[in-house]
């Protein structure tokens, strides 16, 4: 509960994003928020250039996405055909499938129950230490995985992982 409370209280102090302010039409608030996030003067050329990029992206998204309201925007995730590579339903199903398959690997069991499981088997003299090693390997492998994805690309890493 302590970590959840820290996160919940910390969220109260988290500022709104510049994208949110642009979406609401509050350009000056977006400029201040972006300046704060980037540690720059809100009137600097760097902030102005990034703000223009955010504005242009928002305008593009407005042109490309039909105005359907809250429920309609969620339903757009399921529009199109599974056979079409660019359809929303195919992208949504791919994301859901990847997450589901990641859960099927059993990694949560290792992180949550490894100490209890290893103690029950009696095969390891110090199950807590072994569980700590599992977690340490995961923590140290995460930055390495980011490097691999940036170096070789998401698709090729996904294909090699599937093989």
From TrEMBL:
One CC-aspect GO term: membrane
Subcellular location: Membrane
Chain ranges of the Major facilitator superfamily (MFS) profile domain: 1-163
PROSITE patterns found in the cross-reference section: MFS, SUGAR_TRANSPORT_1
Protein name: Major facilitator superfamily (MFS) profile domain-containing protein
Membrane topology per record: Multi-pass membrane protein
Family: Belongs to the major facilitator superfamily. Sugar transporter (TC 2.A.1.1) family.
A GO molecular function held by the record: carbohydrate:proton symporter activity
Transmembrane segments: 128-149
Main location: membrane
Annotated signal sequence range: 1-19
InterPro entries membership: MFS_dom, MFS_sugar_transport-like, MFS_Sugar_Transporters, MFS_trans_sf, Sugar_transporter_CS
Entry keyword set: Membrane, Signal, Transmembrane, Transmembrane helix
Pfam families: Sugar_tr (PF00083)
Organism expressing this protein natively: Entomortierella chlamydospora
